[in-house]
Structure formats: structure tokens, C-alpha cells
Amino acid sequence: MKRILELLPESPAYFDKDQLTDKPAKFFVSEIIREKILRYYDKEIPYSVEVAVERFKEDERLIRINAVIYVERDSQKGIIIGHQGQALKKVSAEARKSLEQFFGKKIFLETYVKVDKDWRSSKRASHIPRERQHPQKTLTPTPPAKRRTGQMTRKKRP
């Protein structure tokens, strides 16, 4: 080990001593939300979820975060949201608690669910930030999943 240290060239430090990582805060937000999704939904939504942070605004006491959960199919969107939004509410609450612990501040977290059929197979893979992928998209709240009534209707054949 001494020999390796002798051969290494001296250079200035790349990072400050108090800097823990080179990843931005948005990265950790999306990973914490994704972790809660994977824990809560188990095998229903295995790996077809992408989380993108569209807004991260921090002040002295509070961090405001808008995150979008992208899924590949409409059926997955319904599973993520759950009956009357309860599943999404649970995931968001758990993520908020973890984020408050991570950042040491109060968190205001808004989560939305959107369907993007090509997020995995196109050039817009998860390593490319969503801000560059969908600059024209704006946030719109996703309404809770509608409950189906027990009635079934048939289309009349011509």
C-alpha cells in the first residue's frame, strides 16, 4: 500500500471535505420515492417505474418537491394510485418521512402519476434527466382512480 501511495501523483482535492457525494439532491429524492414504490407494491409494479423530480425548491425551513411517477401502462397507473388514491397517499407519506429525515427539514411533497409508454425502450432512459426529455410537459394533478359501478354495458352491434 505504501508503494501505491508513493506512485500516485499529488493533485488538488476534487471535492470539498464536507461534500458527501457528487449527486444532486433531486437524485436522492427520486431514489427514495422509487424505493418506497418498490417496497409497497412488491411484485405488482416490479421495475416499470421511473420517478422524475420536476420541481425542487428549498428555503430555510421547508423543501417543496413535485415528483412525477412514470409508468408504462394505464393499468399500472391505476395500481400506483390505488382505490381513491390511498396507495399513492401511503407511498407519498412514507417517502416524505424519509425525505424529512434525509434533509433534516420539513418536506412538502406532491406526487403525480403519468403514463409514458416509451420511457424504458427509447433514448429517454432513466439516466437522462426528465427535465431534458419532456421540456414541454407541465404538471397536472392526477385524479383519484374512479370506482367502477357493478353495471356492465354492451355495445350494440350494427
Outline the structure in words.
The protein is 34% helix and 19% strand. It has helices spanning 2-7, 25-41, 74-81, 86-103, 130-133, and strands at 49-58, 62-71, 106-115. The protein starts with a helix and ends in a 25-residue tail after the last helix. A 3-stranded mixed sheet has the order 1-2-3. With 158 residues, the protein is an alpha+beta fold. It is built from 5 helices and 3 strands; from the N terminus they run H-H-E-E-H-H-E-H. Mean pLDDT is 77; it is low at 126-157.
Give a topology summary.
Elements lengths: L1 H6 L17 H17 L7 E10 L3 E10 L2 H8 L4 H18 L2 E10 L14 H4 L25
Parallel strand pairs: 2-3
Antiparallel strand pairs: 1-2
Helix pairs in contact: 2-4
